[in-house]
Design goal:
By secondary structure, this protein is mainly β. It contains six helices and 37 strands. Helices cover 7% and strands 54% of the residues.
Length: 678
């Protein structure tokens, strides 16, 4: 922390703004105001300060000013969401929210883009790499809520991502060390009836680790493209169709031994034996078609319908083909203080694999979800009450050579009740109780060899949130106390388990508190803080195969107690911005260390853990504008940027078990770029 403080002081002295800051701080003028932001996570538009649930909202301005280059960077640097590369793959990262663990916590979060679910039917995490940060308009995070509208998987919360439809043109590029290159174009136009927008971006990198025995490094390339057409027959109705394509090719490293990681986290000597091995080669093609409509029947009733089809082929050791259909329709009634929305959703996901796990037997697995829900909200002037319920049916089908072998069905319910009370113009208290469920992905039912091993009971979660919002002319604060009780919580998958079985904890609990604050000292400087204290513990586990001596009171693996992000945003002048971000997560028990056991190689050492995550990033943005109307390269505005990631070059990794570490974020990276706006 002393080094970080020294850097901040040095920057202030270097640009000569300390006297200006002091003078502005002594002024009594209101130099900055943080306004409430509309949140739509419950499909009922509400000011975030008046929502009955815990939330984090980030608009486009905040995302741009963060200096983040990817959505994963933004989540790690600014929010309470944790992300880490899946088996060392930075293009596919696992997510955690409120202590469900980095290994399987992504299953406890529903992630949507413009309402379309990104959750997969197998053990592949939601692919946020397909969402370039330049195309994001808003990010909404709900914590301990969302089960009524989003159903299966919203036990920890939800992440709603909304993209922007450009009506102008911008072109951007950047270059950096390790062969990193990006290129982005965003364009569009609109008329009274029509709107057209198109987006494309390309990212390349030559790899951070040593060459493998085949001469290849962990290089990668990602391409995204999107075209959207919208038609508005009337002022209160619209129809749209969107086509999106993503191509990913990447070679990513696997595990390292502890000694190899400590000597060189970029080593190719995988495993405890230190044997050089070729990097895992992944190719992924995804095509998405979406269409939808919104119609205002009268001043009180509105209908919405959305449909999406996802066609994906993923090749790693074998080829897997995915076809997903998602339907979402609802009717919203609003009259004065009352808003009611009711609707239904249907999802069917199909995975075909002709050579899974080294066998020649074609297999097809399918998961279907059908849900109905109703959500209501009533505003009694200074008090808002919300109430909602959901019923969902989940079917699994496993086919071998075209013959149905196994079927199963879950019939589950969810509900939520919430309250928000305004005590004055700047202070609100809120509370909600949420009952949620999570069914398992298809891979949880198979052993490492691909054999069906039986069904698991769904996860049931009961969560209570109590908190407050405090808004002043210079600060915006949210504080939340939370507690959750869980039944049959999934800890990790049999694919990576040394015990050979998926582990469902009979009873477990989570509790803690969250603090978010954005404070403006003056027009030149503001600071953001996001801190979460989380305890995730085992209450009871009767299986001796999974947990020795019941494990009662043990910490759940893969969960950090302390999670902190700190951002300092400094504007020495109107056109210059300096951003310093600090991320910290305390050490956590290894992902398979359910027993909180000691290191098997040294009985006198403390329990083997994933080391603390400490990452410092520094960004600079200069905006060029010519008030006289003269354009540079034909652009009305140019944003030049520079960024240093992992300033102190700390090595990070995820410990699976003793002597098995997946390295990540172990290099210091530089990026320089420019965006031309026309």
């Amino acid at each position: 922390m002393k080094k970080i403080f020294s850097i901040v002081v040095f920057i202030l002295l270097l640009i000569g703004v300390v006297p200006q800051i002091t003078e502005a701080a002594e002024s009594n003028e209101k130099t900055f105001i943080f306004e409430p932001i509309l949140v739509e996570a419950s499909k009922i538009k509400t000011k975030d300060t008046e929502a009955t649930y815990a939330s984090e909202i980030y608009n486009r301005k905040e995302i741009i000013e963060s200096g983040a280059k990817t959505i994963y960077d933004f989540l790690n640097q600014n929010t309470s969401v944790v992300s880490m590369p899946s088996s060392g793959n930075p293009f596919s990262q696992k997510l955690d929210l409120r202590g469900f663990g980095i290994t399987q916590g992504f299953q406890s979060i529903v992630v949507t883009v413009n309402g379309r679910r990104l959750n997969n039917i197998d053990d592949v995490p939601q692919n946020l790499s397909s969402i370039p940060i330049q195309n994001i308009d808003r990010i909404e995070i709900t914590k301990g809520s969302g089960s009524v509208v989003y159903g299966d998987g919203a036990t920890g919360g939800t992440i709603q991502i909304y993209t922007r439809d450009a009506t102008d043109t911008s072109i951007g590029f950047s270059v950096g060390n390790y062969g990193r290159q990006t290129a982005t174009i965003n364009t569009g136009f609109s008329t009274k009836k029509f709107q057209f927008s198109a987006f494309g971006n390309n990212y390349k990198q030559d790899g951070y680790s040593d060459k493998g025995p085949d001469g290849n490094r962990d290089e990668g390339e990602l391409l995204n493209s999107k075209v959207r057409i919208q038609y508005k027959p009337t002022e209160s109705s619209k129809l749209f169709i969107e086509k999106k394509a993503t191509y990913l090719e990447y070679r990513y490293p696997n595990l390292l031994s502890k000694s190899t990681f400590e000597q060189n986290p970029g080593s190719n000597d995988k495993g405890a034996a230190g044997t050089p091995t070729a990097y895992t080669h992944q190719i992924e093609n995804t095509d998405v078609i979406e269409l939808g409509s919104t119609f205002k029947i009268n001043k009180n009733i509105e209908t919405n319908f959305d449909y999406s089809f996802v066609d994906q082929k993923r090749v790693i050791s074998s080829e897997r083909k995915y076809k997903n259909h998602y339907y979402d329709g609802n009717i919203k009634y609003s009259s004065g203080p009352l808003t009611i929305i009711t609707g239904g959703q249907y999802f069917t996901g199909n995975r075909r694999c002709d050579n899974c796990n080294g066998t020649d037997t074609p297999t097809t697995t399918t998961k279907e979800n059908a849900g109905l829900y109703i959500q209501g909200q009533y505003d009694f002037n200074s008090t808002i009450i919300s109430l909602g319920a959901r019923k969902e049916w989940i079917d699994y089908t496993f086919e071998n050579l075209g013959t149905t072998t196994t079927e199963n069905q879950d019939n589950l319910a969810a509900f939520d009740i919430g309250l928000n009370k305004s005590l004055n113009d700047s202070f609100n208290i809120f509370s909600n109780f949420n009952y949620a469920f999570q069914t398992h992905n298809l891979d949880n039912f198979f052993d490492f060899q691909g054999n069906f091993a039986g069904f698991l009971e769904p996860v049931i979660t009961s969560t209570l949130n109590i908190g407050f919002n405090h808004l002043t002319s210079k600060s915006k604060t949210k504080f939340t106390l939370f507690g959750s009780k869980l039944r049959d919580e999934l800890i990790f998958n049999r694919h990576i388990s040394s015990f050979g079985n998926s582990v469902s904890i009979d009873r477990s609990s989570k509790y803690g508190f969250e603090l978010q604050n954005k404070y403006s000292f003056n027009e030149l400087l503001y600071v953001t803080v996001n801190y979460a204290y989380i305890r995730a513990i085992v209450d009871r586990e009767t299986s001796e195969a999974n947990c020795i001596n019941n494990c009662a009171g043990n910490d759940l693996p893969g969960v950090s107690r302390h999670n902190l992000t700190l951002g300092i945003n400094l504007k020495p002048s109107e056109n210059n911005t300096v951003i310093l971000t600090q991320s910290y997560r305390s050490a956590a028990y290894a992902d398979q260390d359910l027993n909180n056991a000691e290191d098997s190689t040294n009985s006198s050492s403390p329990s083997f853990k994933t080391p603390a995550f400490i990452k410092t990033d520094l960004s600079y943005i200069h905006t060029y504008k010519n008030n006289s109307g003269k354009k540079l390269f034909g652009a009305s505005q140019i944003d030049f940027s520079a960024k240093i990631e992992n300033l102190f070059e700390r090595a990070h990794g995820t410990v699976l078990r003793d002597d098995v570490i997946y390295p990540s974020n172990f290099t210091r990276n530089f990026m320089f770029g420019a965006e031309f706006k026309y």
